[in-house]
Structures are given as structure tokens and as C-alpha cells.
Specification:
The protein is an alpha/beta fold. 41% of the residues lie in helices and 18% in strands. Helix 2 packs antiparallel against helix 3.
């Protein structure tokens, strides 16, 4: 009976009507909410809704939102006029045009690629806080590092230090849902960013806060790729730690990062951001700026900065990332840079913790290698995120070179402009390259090629 109905003209008409309604909903939501999408993402959603509307449309309604800033307006920031008159000023000009904050000074930059050094730096920053600590993370694990962090925060809260902790809702579950009651009882404020069970339409379950920072007293910043979990530092239970990249520094740049935290905290708690504190600029550099990326930005800031960087680069593009599933625009920009003899070096782990991303990356890697780019694979889990362009800029923070991180997640990068520090970041990346083996291109068979295409169809959700 059911099979006869499914073959009847009435069913075909009804099915066709549902497909049309689904596509109209997609067009109306995309237009009314100003949801700019890459061509790959747009085609993927249209095909999914057209071919399997009963699954595709609910998925789109749940996960299709990409931008929450629907104003389309950019607040153009100001920056140092003298600084913008130099030949290397294009990153600052572009960032300013996308509404990012002005360059500010910083001091005492310390880059820690070693997990032990990173943990000691984190403990020193927390223990030295006198008035305020704000922390934002994707994962706070229920392990040795997580429990040690909680103990230190509880002690500081009991000393009278104002503490605010912001954890991504999904990341909190992934970390084992560590008990936060004692920290709350000590006087700290805790918020989950878009928890799984949240107010409908306030945000999207698919838009996760991947930003990671600790700011003490508005003057000291700890930031980078590390979550608060043992594998990012010294490992646990005979498991080797991951290699990662974080840094700490002092100065006005820390206050700039705190402003971004304030913005995220207000969204997570439904409150109004506290009045911005006046960032006291120091006359002499070095200079840097926080680049925020995500649904709260009109533009795809880091993505657009990287694409522009590929066209501006004259000698080198050096990047380290755990996952490489780039957008079509970023991949094409990298290919063209390699073809005009810019030395493009990309460092990845042989095997990351994300098997689907490992599978999906090969098509892009084959194209990059064929264009003259050098792809390097290290024999350990590498979670670091950094990109160096000539001596113009070094970007380091939380952004992976995959479509999810570039287009969907809330992320942050710090753009460093001092040549000495740019070279320092390049040196840290170079140490990983020295431990790597060159990627060997293998022509895929038909099944492999089709499988990669199918995975890339959904790559924007990785």
C-alpha cells in the first residue's frame, strides 16, 4: 500500500512541492539574515535539500546559520597614521577596513611550543593576578590539568580576585563536564557559551566558541591553541602530549583581548557589555592587534586576511595547522602564490585527532604540491596554529586552516608586526619542519577520488 502511494502522481507532486518549499526557505533565510556562503557550502545545502528534503531542511534550520551580525555595517577602526604609510602596512589597513581594533603595543612576548613551559606560564599568570582573571576556553577537561586549574582559581577567588570563566557548551561536554560547583561557591562567575540546550534562535548549535585566552588584571595575556586539558601540556597516563603553540605577553594588547572576552561574555550571559576601559597606548612598539573571526563579525576576517596575504606575499608563506581543508578561495590563493615562486611551506601532523579531516585534506594537498608548494608531515599530533607572511605579519591564535574554523567558529588570532617577533614565530614553525618528512603525492583511484569528493561535499561542517 505504501509502495503504491510512493509511486503515485499524488506523492510525486507532494514531494516536488516539499522540495520547492525547502529551497524557498533556504533562499529566504539566506537573504534575510545576510548569510554569505562559499560556493561549496551553498551548493552542498541546495543539493542536500533538493535530494533529501526531509533530512536536509531540518539540518539546515538547525545548523545553517553562519552569521549573527546581520547589520552589514563595519565600524572602521583607526590606527597609527605613520604606521600605515609603510610598504608592509597592508595587513593593518585591511584589518582596519573590516572593523578590527587598532594596533597596540605589547612587551615581554614569550612563545611556548613546549607544553611544560606553557603550563608554567599559565600558572604564573593565574597566581600573579591581583584584581581580575578572565578565562575563555573551548575545553576544560576533567583531568589533572583541569583539576589543577580549578584549584588555583578557587584559591584566587577566595583571595578576593574577581574571576569569570567562559566555556563553550559543547566543549564542556567533550571535556567530561567537570564539576564547577566549588568554583561557583568560591565566588567565581561561570558561563557556558551556547550550551546544547539553549534558548532557540539565540544562537546556532553549530557555531562554537573556539577562542582561548586568559587575561590577568587587563595587562597580562596568555593565548593560543591549547585547551585546558592534559594532552595539550604534559600528557597523562603514558599518553604523549600534543605539540602546540601558545604565547604570553604584557601591555595594552592584553586589554584589547579582554574587550573581546567582554563581548563574548555579554552574549553568553544575555547581559550588556561593561563599559570599555581606556586602552593606554605606549609610544613605542612592538605593535600587534587582536583579529576576531566568527559569526559576530560582518566579514570572514581571518580568512580574508589570509587570502589577501597569499597575493601580497613576495618570498614566503609558512603555515602550521592540525587540519587542512581550505576554502576554494584560500586554496586557489595558495596555489597562485606557489606558482609565482613564493616559498609556500605547510606543516601538518601525519595523523591528527580528526580522521575525517585527514581523509578530506589530500585533494588540496595534491594540488598544492603540484603547484610547487612544500607540504611537510610530522610524526606527532601537532595542534599549533600559526601563519607567517614574509616579514610583514605573523598570525597566531586559535584558527585552523579548515572551513569550519575559518567560516563558522568564533576564533581569534593575534597579528604581530615586529620583525624580530615574526622571525621568532617562523623559527618555532621551522623546528617542526625539521622533524617532518615531505608529503608524497599519490594519484587516487576512482573510489578514493569519489570518496574524497563526497567528504568535501560536507567539508564546510568539519
Amino acid at each position: 500500500m505504501i509502495s503504491k502511494f510512493l509511486q503515485s502522481p499524488q506523492w510525486l507532486s507532494l514531494h516536488g512541492l516539499i522540495v520547492v518549499i525547502g529551497l524557498l526557505i533556504y533562499v529566504l533565510i539566506t537573504h534575510s539574515l545576510c548569510q554569505r556562503r562559499s560556493s561549496t557550502a551553498a551548493v552542498s545545502w541546495v543539493l542536500t535539500i533538493a535530494l533529501i528534503p526531509y533530512i536536509g531542511l531540518p539540518l539546515f534550520l538547525l545548523f545553517g546559520t553562519r552569521k549573527l551580525d546581520r547589520s552589514g555595517k563595519r565600524v572602521i577602526s583607526t590606527t597609527l597614521a605613520a604606521d600605515l604609510n609603510t610598504d608592509e602596512a597592508w595587513p593593518r589597513k585591511l584589518a582596519a577596513s573590516m572593523g578590527q581594533p587598532s594596533v597596540v603595543s605589547y612587551q615581554n612576548l614569550s612563545i611556548h611550543s613546549d607544553g611544560k613551559q606553557a603550563l608554567q606560564s599559565l600558572w604564573k599568570l593565574i597566581d600573579g593576578a591581583k584584581q581580575e582573571l578572565v578565562l575563555c576556553t573551548f575545553i576544560l577537561a576533567r583531568d589533572a590539568v583541569g583539576h589543577s586549574l580549578m584549584a588555583r582559581l578557587i584559591a584566587k577567588a577566595r583571595e578576593g580576585v574577581k574571576i569569570r570563566l567562559l566555556i563553550d557548551g559543547v566543549g564542556h561536554m567533550m571535556g567530561g563536564a567537570i564539576n564547577l560547583h566549588k568554583l561557583k561557591a568560591a565566588g567565581a562567575q561561570i558561563a557556558l557559551y551556547a550550551p546544547i540546550l539553549h534558548v532557540p534562535f539565540k544562537s546556532s548549535t553549530n557555531l562554537r566558541n573556539h577562542r582561548k585566552m586568559v587575561v590577568a588584571d587587563e595587562v597580562r595575556l596568555w593565548c593560543g591553541g591549547r585547551n585546558f586539558a592534559s594532552e595539550y601540556f604534559e600528557g597523562e597516563h603514558k599518553h604523549k602530549p600534543w605539540k602546540d603553540l601558545t604565547f604570553d605577553l604584557e601591555g595594552p594588547l592584553a586589554a584589547q583581548a579582554r574587550e573581546l572576552f567582554e563581548h563574548d561574555w555579554a552574549f553568553a550571559t544575555g547581559s550588556h557589555p561593561t563599559k570599555r576601559s581606556q586602552i593606554v597606548q605606549i609610544a613605542r612598539g612592538p605593535y600587534a592587534q587582536v583579529i576576531a573571526s566568527g559569526p559576530d563579525q560582518v566579514d570572514d576576517t581571518v580568512h580574508d586576511l589570509l587570502v589577501t596575504a597569499c597575493f601580497k606575499a613576495r618570498t614566503r608563506i609558512t603555515a602550521v595547522t592540525p587540519y587542512f581543508v581550505p576554502t576554494d578561495a584560500l586554496l586557489m590563493a595558495l596555489l597562485l602564490a606557489a606558482r609565482r615562486d613564493v616559498m609556500v611551506d605547510l606543516i601538518l601532523p601525519i595523523h591528527s585527532n580528526h580522521r575525517m579531516a585527514d581523509f578530506a585534506r589530500h585533494r588540496a594537498l595534491r594540488e598544492l604540491a603540484a603547484a610547487g608548494g612544500r607540504v611537510w608531515l610530522v610524526p606527532y599530533m601537532l595542534h599549533a596554529k600559526a601563519v607567517v607572511i614574509d616579514d610583514s605579519v605573523a598570525l597566531s591564535g586559535t584558527v585552523n586552516l579548515d572551513s569550519r574554523s575559518l567560516l563558522l567558529n568564533y576564533e581569534l588570532m593575534v597579528a604581530f608586526y615586529a620583525v624580530a617577533d615574526i622571525q621568532h614565530f617562523a623559527g618555532v614553525i621551522e623546528k617542526h619542519r625539521e622533524a617532518a618528512k615531505r608529503y608524497q603525492v599519490r594519484k587516487p583511484g576512482l573510489l578514493r577520488d569519489l570518496s574524497e569528493g563526497l567528504v568535501l561535499w560536507l567539508a564546510f561542517q568539519l
